[in-house]
Design brief:
The structure is a homodimer of 85-residue chains.
Chain A (H helix, E strand, L loop, with lengths): L1 E8 L6 H12 L5 E14 L4 H16 L5 E8 L6
Antiparallel strand pairs in A: 1-2, 1-3
Chain lengths: 85, 85
C-alpha cells in the first residue's frame, strides 16, 4: 500500500522559496497567483497488510523524521493499489 | 481557490534522496518501508473565480515551470476553500 505525505511550512513561517516562485509565476504572466508555498511530497511504498496499522506507522514516521513539528504541518493520504491480474 | 501540485520523479529516474530516506527509515526500525520517493509539493493560492479556468492555468504552470516533463510527473488537486462568515 502506498502512503503519500505532504509536508508544508506552517502559515507564519517565512518561505523564501514560495515567495520566489510567486514572483517567477507572476513574471511569466500568471498574475492570478497571490501566493505559493513550496513543501515536500513523500511517497512511501510499504509492505503492511493492515491499513490501520500503516496509518499509525506513517504518523509515527512523520513525527520522528519526515516533518519538523516546530515549523511544519503534514497531511497523509493513503492509497490502495490494486494488484494487476 | 487553492490548487495543490504534487511533483514526483518518473519511475525509472534515479532518486538518491528517496533511497537515503528509505535507508534512514529502515534504520529507525520502519522495516516495512520498501521504497520511498521524495518530490515537491506546491500550494498555489489563486485569485480566479472560475474553477475550470484555474485548472487550465495550473496545467500551464506545470508545463512551463513547475515540473520538468523529461524526468517528472505531476498531479493536481483542486480545493475550494469556503469563506468564513
Amino acid at each position: 500500500m502506498i502512503s503519500k505525505v505532504l509536508v508544508r511550512l506552517k502559515e507564519d513561517v517565512l518561505d523564501p522559496a514560495g515567495r520566489a516562485l510567486t514572483e517567477q509565476l507572476n513574471h511569466l504572466g500568471f498574475n492570478e497567483v497571490k501566493s505559493a508555498m513550496v513543501g515536500k511530497y513523500i511517497e512511501l511504498n510499504m509492505d503492511t497488510g493492515d491499513r490501520e496499522k500503516q496509518k499509525e506507522r506513517v504518523q509515527e514516521m512523520c513525527h520522528r523524521l519526515l516533518a519538523n513539528s516546530l515549523i511544519e504541518d503534514y497531511e497523509i493520504i493513503h492509497e490502495v493499489i490494486e494488484k494487476k491480474p
